[in-house]
Amino acid sequence: MDLDSLGEESFDFMLCTPDWFASHMKSDIVEGRHYFFVKDFNYAELKRFVEDYCVKCSANTWREVAQKLARLGKWEFEDYAEYKPPPVEW
């Protein structure tokens, strides 16, 4: 995978209110990575928050930038490991 070329990649997060989250908890303890909690949905405010966060993510390589962005949302390649087939024995 060439991470230095132009392209698109996705970063996903779950947006929810504390009340919605509480009503959908399946256990008493839930991990919160990649969740945004908002009192009320405000698209303009959310967009500004995400854009401000992204502007602050700079690094020498795309992978380093993506790892910073992945703190906010799950990067589609976050758990990616290049497949290396086992050596063939004859």
Architecture overview:
The chain is an alpha+beta fold. It has one domain (11-75). Helix content is 30%, strand content 11%. The protein has three helices and four strands. It has helices spanning 18-23, 43-55, 62-69; strands at residues 11-12, 14-16, 35-37, 74-75. The strands form two sheets. Strands 1-4 form a two-stranded antiparallel sheet. Strands 2-3 form a two-stranded parallel sheet. β2 (14-16), α1 (18-23) and β3 (35-37) form a beta-alpha-beta unit. The mean pLDDT is 85.
Tell me the layout of helices and strands.
Elements: E1 11-12, E2 14-16, H1 18-23, E3 35-37, H2 43-55, H3 62-69, E4 74-75
Parallel strand pairs: 2-3
Antiparallel strand pairs: 1-4
Alpha-carbon Rg, integer? 18 Å
Tally of helical segments: 3
- Approximate strand percentage: 5-15%
Major β-sheet strand ordering: 1-4
User: Total number of β-strand segments?
Assistant: 4
Work out the helicity level: 25-40%
Roughly what is the average pLDDT, rounded to an integer? 85
Low-pLDDT stretches: none
Structural class: alpha+beta
Q: Quote the distance from N terminus to C terminus.
A: 29 Å
Overall 3D form: flat
> How many structural domains can be distinguished in the coordinates?
1
Biggest sheet, open or closed, and with what strands and sense?
Answer: 2 strands, antiparallel
Give me the strand/helix succession. Answer: EEHEHHE
